[in-house]
Amino acid sequence: MSGLGFTVAVSGKGGVGKTMLSTLMIRYFAKKGSTLAIDADPDSNLPWALGVPVVKDVGHTREMIAQAPARSAVAGDKASAFENALHEVVQEADDFDIVVMGRSEGAGCYCAINHILRDVIDARAANYDYTFIDTEAGLEHLSRRTTRDVDLMVVVTEPTLNGILTAKRVHDLAKEIDIGFGRIMVLANKVTDETRPMAEKLAREYGLKIDFFVPFDPAVGLQDAMGKPMYQLAEDSPASKAVTEFCEIIQSTVLTA
Ligand SMILES: Nc1ncnc2c1ncn2[C@@H]1O[C@H](COP(=O)(O)OP(=O)(O)O)[C@@H](O)[C@H]1O
Ligand SMILES: [Mg+2]
Questions:
Q1: DSSP 3-state of 41
Q2: H-type alpha helices, the chain
Q3: What CATH code would you report for 6-254?
Q4: Pairing between strand 212-215 and 183-191?
Q5: Hey, where are the domains in the chain?
Q6: Any residues with CB less than 8 A from the CB of 200 and at least 6 apart, and which?
Q7: Under a CB-based contact definition with an 8 Å cutoff, are residues 146 and 121 in contact?
């Protein structure tokens, strides 16, 4: 089995709407081809948003890998033990597969998580047409190697001064460390008629181009309030429609580039 291997990472500060956007993008692309969802946010809630009950996380995988040589038939055969462990954490849902990275133990342990994320991407992403990574916060935690194979980084922001400044910083950082994304797109979420002109003005002032706007949509909050998976958000709600449009743009521009 070999897919397109098109990999999208969704990044931004906590609460900007990464999980909502990842979920609706996964819903769109899962209809187009084989799709892998990776939850790389330590405050993981992607499985819930996708309506997938319980998933094993990579913390568990890591333990399995640590114990693997002892259990492996071939002593020291870490690579195949890793493959096996990985196979176990990829959970199949109806429309897509999902991997949850879990929490890193202790502070400053992102390197370990990133190492595993990198291996997951290397080992698995090429097998799928589309891979979506719901990442935590900034780019600081993503190593060059981790993101080597990311074709599109979607930087999500809210239409606030702080949000625009953060998006600009992430955008510049990505350029600076030459992280090797195929493309970076800035998406402003929760935008209203009142905030949109201001966000556009601020972005211009700080030299940031906002590629797409997703409106503030009460139906999104309602979905959360009712405890329903975002995956089931009405397709005709404003946020759903906007994300569909965004996905169509990705398909017609980034994917065919
Ligand atoms: N377009 C939107 N309109 C209204 N509320 C939104 C929108 N996008 C996200 N939200 C709300 O913002 C909060 C954070 O969204 P979430 O996707 O969990 O963000 P993140 O994953 O970046 O932390 C949630 O309560 C969600 O309901
Ligand atoms: Mg989230």
A1: coil
A2: 18-30, 46-50, 58-71, 78-89, 110-124, 161-176, 195-205, 218-225, 238-249
A3: 3.40.50.300
A4: parallel
A5: 6-254
A6: 210
A7: yes
- Helix/strand/coil for 200: helix
* pLDDT by 10s per residue, the chain, length 257: 456 788 898 988 889 999 999 999 999 999 999 999 988 877 778 999 999 986 666 666 556 555 554 444 444 455 566 566 666 778 889 999 998 876 655 444 455 555 666 666 666 656 889 999 898 755 555 555 455 567 888 999 999 999 899 888 877 877 766 555 678 899 999 999 999 999 999 999 999 999 999 999 999 999 999 999 999 999 999 999 999 999 999 999 878 76
17 CA to centre of own chain? 11
Spatial separation of the C-alpha atoms in residues 41 and 164, rounded to whole Å: 21
Half-sphere exposure of 241 (CA within 13 A, CB side): 7
Take atom 19 of ligand 1 and give the residue whose Cα is closest.
17
The bound ligand whose nearest atom lies closest to the alpha carbon of 16 is 1
Q: What is the pTM of this model?
A: 0.86
Q: Which of 156, 220, 222, 246 to mutate to test the pocket of ligand 1 (most atoms within 8 A of CB)?
A: 220
- In single-letter form, the type of residue at position 180 comes to G
Query: Quick one: how many helices (H) and strands (E) in the chain?
Result: 9, 8
Pocket flag, ligand 1, residue 23 (CB < 6 Å): no
Give me the residue label for tokens 């780019």: 139
Which of 20, 160, 245 to mutate to test ligand 1, by most ligand atoms within 8 A of the CB atom? 20
